[in-house]
Amino acid sequence: MAPAATLGALGRLAGRWVGSEILHSLSGVEPERKAQGCFSNRIFEARFLINDYEQSVDGEIVFRGHGVYGFDPGSGRYSMYWIDSQGGAVGPIVAGDLEANRLVFLRQGAGGATRYAYTFEGPGGFRFELSVSLDGRTFRPVLAGRYEKR
Description:
single chain, mainly beta, Lipocalin, 11 strands
């Protein structure tokens, strides 16, 4: 099977992506902050996308994460596993669906829901938004960024 068929939309994320980010305050008290994000993504065994992410503020790396993304051609569903430098861990499976040009992963938990959304903007760009919800319906952005392929 060709990599495009086994990876679905994940193949579009392969490569190195750099962009500007806005970090939103969950409390509404702190001001928004600006950051730079870098995704380094590679295809593993034509079945998975391995993601290494770094976020920097004023040139200093403040956050790192590592993800493994998969696609099941039979069901058309995506999966995600994530760990990061702040002790966060997501997975092993977070359900994901492709809606037009937007790949959305949704994680439901006891404390609410988290949404990870990748919106494709042609071959050279995408937007990413990380949002949270206490009720699972109304989401507030935590991070929003736009990235270009380098």
